Amino acid sequence: MMLDVRGLKPPQPAVMILESLGKLKVGDTLEVIGGRPFVDLIPKLEEAGYDIEVREVGGFFVLKVTKTESSKEFKMKVKECDDRLDEITEDTNVAKLLKAYPQSLEILVKYGFSPPHNPVMRKTWSEQWPLGRPKSFSV
Hints:
four-stranded mixed sheet; 4 strands
């Protein structure tokens, strides 16, 4: 069985892979081609007893998952994943930046960006504030 998940945004690839794994019989292999190396999925599949092989081919990643006799039913909680930003500019919304990269708040503060201390105000403020605005906001 083959899946092509290139270009799909999370969690869609994981959902498709989980559905396909449920259809495998012992000895069957699922091949998945994707734009990312499946690093979050591989340890969970190995823990569930599947044989795993990953290789890079032409800038894409091919994941081969073979169901073995010791493979357990594979379940994982699939949650909505934050979209990653393709580009960060002065027009980038602070809330989107912080959602995609939570660790960026520490970096922004280090370079003089001063968010409001009140969490409610910080949330409201960040939803409307692009990076290009002045660095401080007093509340």
